[in-house]
Prior knowledge:
This protein is mainly alpha-helical.
Amino acid sequence: xxxxxxxxxxxxxxxxxxxxxxxxxxxxxxxxxxxxxxxxxxxxxxxxxxxxxxxxxxxxxxxxxxxxxxxxxxxxxxxxxxxxxxx
Length: 87
């Protein structure tokens, strides 16, 4: 037996003015099985959530970059050490 789906959530790729999004709303309403389309206005919580995600992403990216440079530094130091040992 398969599950029944009652609701889908559509998230837009950015913030749009309400008059600009009207064509998207109308297009979604034309899809078979759509009973209602609601618009949700952007509020402070949306901006806070985006800021938190952006900060977490940037921190992870900085950590990855730091690890790459640490490995390169280790490789250079290790190669210099090996050269000294061979002489």
